[in-house]
Specification:
Length: about 270
């Protein structure tokens, strides 16, 4: 039996959908299970909800969007429960190797270490930046994209491809025991290319100017710094490393991420 956590989220839901034809039952774990569904209450903040008895494989979708201490405590709860309940294989969705300078990287690397030092078999999926997120960070206004991505290339990937890769690993975990995969794109794209694809101008902004705008936009206290770390990493070439791992796990060429990022920008313009 396979458990996928974070199953109401965009990645977790897509992993569950991709596992629909699996040879073993698949249970969707979420903080908000729908009535009468094949869903189970799984909240990393509530250790009492973490009963993994009977699950051979757990796909642990990272639960970010918080300060490091909160994320690390959540992830510790999951790994400890998996060890206690006899899970055989834990699959964790981490962050790309090239993403060490991202504000949320520390909690991912802590979690990788904890899993690698555990009693479990494991697979670490180091997910690249979503093409969808890259598009949403480009903030179009009046025909112009102003974002502090400079001219740096980012090896983004589509969320759907990452979900399919995770489902493929979960369906045959024995082929991926104690492996780390770097699931970034096979080529990097720039903010300028996405702007051109959407028929817009691109004027790179400064990090300082963008930080000031973010700090006045009602985000949670930790969020401006995390977003700035994504812009700065991209602008300065720290998200441009490419890899063939995603294509290897998919058994096909990954989806071209550029049209996906362009579509997000077009949706932002239309909204
Ligand atoms: N590679 C990237 O570009 C990128 C970008 C953003 C985020 N991420 C990371 O990838 C994860 C999945 O991305 P996504 O696109 O699916 O994000 P999303 O749609 O915003 O979903 C957020 C996810 O966090 C889960 N979560 C939050 N608090 C939780 C808790 N206390 N216990 C268990 N699960 C909790 C949610 O699970 P339920 O609501 O089902 O309980 C949901 O799966 C994120 O949580 C984040 O860590 C990666």
């Amino acid at each position: 039996m396979i458990l996928v956590t974070g199953a109401s989220g965009q990645l977790g839901r897509a992993i569950v959908e991709r596992l629909a034809g699996a040879s073993q039952p698949v249970i969707a774990g979420t903080r908000r299970p729908a009535d009468g569904s094949e869903q189970r209450h799984v909240d990393f903040d509530e250790p009492g909800s973490l009963d993994f008895t009977g699950f051979a494989t757990v796909v642990m979708v990272s639960a970010g969007y918080e300060e490091d201490d909160v994320v690390i405590a959540r992830h510790e709860n999951v790994v400890a429960a998996a060890e206690r309940d006899g899970v055989q294989h834990l699959i964790y969705t981490s962050v790309a190797t090239d993403g060490d300078h991202l504000g949320f990287a520390l909690a991912h690397r802590w979690t990788e270490r904890r899993i690698q030092g555990s009693t479990l078999r494991w697979t670490i999926l180091r997910n690249g930046l979503y093409a969808e997120l890259f598009g949403s960070l480009l903030a179009p206004s009046a025909g112009v994209i102003t974002a502090p991505f400079g001219s740096g290339g980012v090896a983004v990937v589509t969320r759907a491809d990452l979900a399919e890769a995770a489902a493929n690993v979960a369906a045959a975990p024995d082929r991926h025991i104690n492996r780390v995969y770097d699931l970034v794109g096979s080529h990097a794209i720039t903010a300028g290319q996405v702007a051109e694809g959407a028929g817009l101008l691109y004027r790179p902004a400064s990090l300082g100017g963008h930080r000031a705008a973010l700090e006045q936009s009602g985000l949670l206290p930790f969020q401006p710094a995390m977003l700035l770390s994504a812009y700065s990493s991209g602008a300065h070439g720290f998200l441009s490393r490419t890899s063939s791992d995603l294509g290897d796990l998919l058994g096909r060429t990954p989806t071209d991420p550029e049209p996906v990022a362009v579509r997000i920008v077009e949706q932002l313009i239309a909204a």
